[in-house]
Write a structure and sequence with these properties.
Oxidoreductase; mainly alpha; DoxX; 230 residues; transmembrane; membrane
């Protein structure tokens, strides 16, 4: 609720302040830049031609931008500089009351410009609309880039590490363990792995091997040695 009240108050303040600036800027346009520069020169403002052009453009265009809520903070900064110059060179030494040439009006407009510079123009503005559009577009682009980075058929894992896969039992696959794994059987028992025949302890032949070689050479059946217990 407080946010809504701020947005409505900011809208009203922006429109009222913008109308005042547009009125003063349009008055300078109608008088002409030459006449405005001459008036600035008589008031003792330095560089009157440049100051007249700056004040005319900033008050007219800046006032319109304030009403629309477009580029509120940059415009508010330019308007604040304009009001500070008016107070410093013209109205600061003439008291407060505007009827006596004091800084009453320029001070109020400068304070409003400072407020817009600090807080912005609220959500009821073109700045808020364009900002929301740009944020949605940026979020969509970031999501598309993330999907493109993983590529088709690849999705981010729960652990956040790309390139690892998990089996149905929840154990890490070869990409995660770094070595080969054997599939688990349905009964939960470890499958038997066939053993390789052991190499002989030495390069020498035993007695059984010699008898088999003799049998092959003499074409006689080999005679196996009986166990000592028989």
């Amino acid at each position: 609720m407080k946010r809504v009240l701020f947005d409505v108050a900011a809208l009203i303040a922006r429109v009222a302040t913008g109308v005042i600036f547009v009125a003063h800027g349009w008055q300078k346009w109608q008088s002409g830049l030459g006449a405005t520069a001459q008036g600035f020169r008589e008031m003792g403002i330095p560089m009157p031609e440049l100051a007249a052009g700056y004040a005319t453009i900033v008050e007219t265009v800046g006032g319109i931008f304030l009403i629309l809520g477009l580029l509120v903070r940059p415009v508010a900064l330019l308007l604040l500089i304009n009001m500070l110059g008016a107070i410093a060179f013209v109205h600061g030494t003439k008291g407060v009351m505007v009827g006596e040439g004091g800084w009453e009006l320029t001070g109020a407009l400068g304070a409003l410009s400072l407020l817009f510079l600090a807080l912005g123009g609220g959500r009821i503005s073109l700045d808020a609309i364009f900002g929301a559009m740009f944020r949605r577009r940026a979020d969509r682009r970031a999501a598309e880039e993330e999907l493109t980075a993983y590529g088709p058929g690849r999705t981010p894992t729960a652990g956040g590490v790309a390139g690892t896969t998990t089996t149905a039992g929840g154990t890490a696959g070869p990409a995660a363990t770094g070595g080969p794994t054997t599939p688990a059987s349905g009964s939960g028992e470890t499958p038997e792995v066939p053993r390789q025949p052991a190499a002989p302890a030495s390069g020498r032949l035993n007695d059984d091997d010699m008898r088999e070689i003799d049998a092959l050479v003499s074409d006689e059946p080999p005679q196996h040695r009986r166990p000592p217990n028989e």
